Amino acid sequence: MAEEEVARISVAVRCRPLSEHERSNMVQSICRVMDGRLVILLDPGASAAHDYLRQDKSKEKRFAFDQAFGPDADTKTLFTATAEPLIKSVLQGYNATVFAYGSTGAGKTFTMIGTPVEPGIMFRSVEEIFKGVATVVDEGTESFSISCSFVEVYNENFRDLAGNSDREGILDLREDPVSGSYVAGIREIQTESVQEVMDLLQHGNQRRTTEPTAMNVTSSRSHAVLQVRVERKGNPSNPSGSLLGKLSMIDLAGSERAAETKNQGVRLLEGANINRSLLALGNCINALASGSHFVPYRDSKLTRLLKDSLGGNCKTVMIATTSPGHLSYEDTLNTLKYANRAKNIRVRAKQNLVTPDEHVSQYEHAIADLRNEVAILKAKLAQRSAAPSDVIEGADENVLKEASENWKLEVIKNLESRTSMQRSLIDVERGLVQWRVELDQAKEMIVHEERGGSSPSSRRSDARSLEDWKDAIAQIEENIKENIETRRSLAERLQQNKTAGKELQKQLSQRVLNEDLRAFLELIQRVQVLEVERLELDHFWEIHRHQLEQRDQEIAMLREQLRLRNQHIQQQRQELSDEKVPGHVFLLGSTLAESSPVQQRGPLRVMQAWAPAREDDEDRVTATFSEEAEDFLQDKINWRALEVPMASQIKGLAQLQQNAGTSRLIAAKAWKDPSLRSIPESRAPRRPLALAQGGVAPPPARPPPREPSLRSEAREGNSSPSQTRGSTCPPLRRKSSLEEKTLAPLAGRQPSMGDMRGAPRGLLRAHGVAVPQRQLDKNLGGVREKSRLRARSEHSRLGRVGRALVTPQRF
Ligand SMILES: Nc1ncnc2c1ncn2[C@@H]1O[C@H](COP(=O)(O)OP(=O)(O)OP(=O)(O)O)[C@@H](O)[C@H]1O
After folding, report:
1. Which residue among 336, 380, 556, 802 has its CA within the 20 to 30 Å range from the CA of 128?
2. Rounded Cα–Cα distance for residues 749 and 738 (Å)
3. How far apart, in whole angstroms, are the C-alpha atoms of residue 434 and residue 313?
4. Which residues sit opposite 172 in a β-bridge?
5. Ligand 1 nearest-atom number relative to CA 100
6. Quick one: angle between helices 265-289 and 329-342, nearest 10?
7. What is the reported pLDDT for 79?
8. Start and end of every Kinesin motor domain (predicted)?
9. Does 110 score more than 60 pLDDT?
10. Of 560, 576, 592, which residue is a domain's last?
């Protein structure tokens, strides 16, 4: 029974020493071998530390192999570790292969063929075979028959290196179900001694196609294959038959890069063929390593020849040779990567026992294999042409042509209409943007017209009336509506068109039979689709651009508004600070506790006033309140002096009036606080409600100007609330409790700030009856119980802020 051994391809790396030529050219050695297994490829730029571009970009690589040999290792050592174990297997009837792979000049030929001084693997293997045979023969009754062949694969053709004539024809590769691939017509030389094989090697090597290239003066331009067949008869394991062992030793041509070898003409073509077969070898290695079911052996003559060695019935050793020079970094790295990948290939070596029965069954297996292969190829062929024949069975060529022509027309139509729809969509979008801009303008015009301002249009000769603008707006809105509808329907049709396009795409393989035409049409369609996609992008870009433009306009508008507002504020502040209104106090509003339940007595209000400062004003106005109230106010209200207020903060205008040595603070304008509203007269309480009164005593040096209109509104020396009535300051009346919840005592009126009778100089005084809110009750404590609270405000500077506590007064 034939034994079967499953094993991985054994991969060894051999790094040659630097040549004399390389040394004299200062080539750096960057390949290191450690522990007999590890190969370290150093970063070729590491020595160039001054080059900042290379810093921190180390290209150092490490690989582990079954075995690794450095520059010092001789071929004998390499042979002992790699090929020698195979010889025993070959003598036991196994197939074995040793092949050297590497870039040009890396030492493949040196390793495989060697020199007379240092013979390579081929010679040593043959020698070992003969030694083994001799031993066995000496021991017993077995007999051996050894034959050799030496062939090269040059430019994808086989050439017999054992022949004598250069004109010998090109040989063909065949597959034998038992012995595997073989070159038909090749000379099989029966050898009796090592010397004969050595002669054959030398003879063949001389005939081998070698040419000097820039990388190697004796560069092998072909793959050389030495095969040794050993037939062993009389072995106890197969006494009636024989054991058939085969050793293949291959010196591959160098993998090379055209740019580096500087090859031209025929050399370049050779290089292309060498690379093609090495590429096919690489693909096979990749397929085998990844466990793929399909291995492209047929892609080159070389891989067809190596079919058994790589993935079949064979024990295989790969020797990857590398150059140590830093100039070969890329080539060496590639070689190591290949070798690293090849480590994963599994081979299944089986003893070749040849018996008559075995022979038949092997042929049967081979036929079955071939049948399988034929089936696979048939299936591939069918794949190419099955689709049309399935779909249009029996149709003649014209019909098929017509079908593909129709498909082409449909696709073109589909894409054309898509393009046109896309363009329409862009137009509609542009229209929409335009109409929206016009709509905004028209609306702006209407606002101007309604305000009675001089709108930009009213200054134009084609000035339109308000009605015209309203008509225009209606028309624009109608147009926008139509555009939106068109856009919707276009988008819908576009979507349908895309779906139809995809459907057509699916039908391509069935409707277009010619593969080239199909590829061409696919290309055309792709171009068209890209064109449409570009249009789509244009479309979105257009929309986006408009949106950005709109935003820019809005930002510009807002900036302008902000500028105007700041300008206005600045002007107002300037006016307020310029003391152009001396004697006036601006009321800053009031704090109104609207939601507080005021009950019968009304809410507590804090009123703020501000007056422009005068340089010569020495008045010191301080706020003083009743003890309890002051405690509260200091706790709860921020009394810090305000800066010049903004116009919008000013709620009213009071006048500081001086009259016979006293001043009055009179609110001369109505309060504009929108939270305040008038009390309907009918609902006004019967009793009048006094407002706070206050005033500032003028400096004695300046007699107060008299203003009759205002003087009549506030009677000097009378703090009675009823006396504050006047045309500009009607008295407040007591409100119902309901009204008091939401109504300030000053609501809608122009309150007089009261007389300034006897007020000390520099005092802004307000007094009234304090009726605090509920939540203030506890803060104010006893204040609540008091029927009257005199609140005197003293401010640090009238030029800043004056505040007066104003409360409804109960009688
Ligand atoms: N291990 C080694 N020790 C000493 N010299 C070596 C070694 N390996 C290779 N050389 C020398 O390097 C040179 C190139 O080697 P070789 O011709 O074997 O390279 P190659 O890989 O076969 O190149 P090509 O693919 O171009 O044929 C030769 O001069 C060879 O003698």
Report:
1. 336
2. 19
3. 79
4. 184
5. 21
6. 30
7. 94
8. 8-345
9. yes
10. 576
Can you tell me which atom of ligand 1 is nearest the CA of 221?
Answer: 27
Find, among 572, 555, 31, 623, the residue nearest to 325 by Cα: 31
Residue 382 tokens, joined: 């069918």
Could you tell me the residue range of the domain that residue 437 belongs to? 397-576
Phi first, then psi: give them for residue 805, nearest 5 degrees.
-85, 120
Task: Mark residue 337 as left, alpha or beta (left: phi above 0; alpha: psi -120 to 50; beta: remaining).
Answer: alpha
Distances (CA, A) of 711 to 663, 727, 752: 10, 11, 11
| DSSP-assigned letters across all residues of 671-706 | ---TT--PPPGGGS-SSEEPPPB---BPPTTSPPPP
Query: What is the SS3 assignment for 49?
Result: coil
If asked whether residues 474 and 533 sit together in one domain, one would say yes
645 lines ligand 1 (CB under 6 A): no
> Are 409 and 267 found together in one domain?
no
Is 73 inside any structural domain? no
Kindly tell me if the per-residue pLDDT of 628 is higher than 70.
Answer: no
Is the CB of 601 inside a 6 Å radius of any atom of ligand 1? no
The two three-digit tokens of residue 584, written as one number: 């006036």
Say whether the ipTM exceeds 0.95: yes
Residue nearest to atom 8 of ligand 1 (CA): 107
Average pLDDT score over the chain: 65
pLDDT at residue 414, rounded to an integer: 81
Q: Identify whether the C-beta of residue 767 lies closer than 8 Å to the C-beta of residue 694.
A: yes
- 616 and 562 both lie in a single domain: no
Give the length of the chain: 811
Q: What is the CATH number of the domain that holds 276?
A: 3.40.850.10
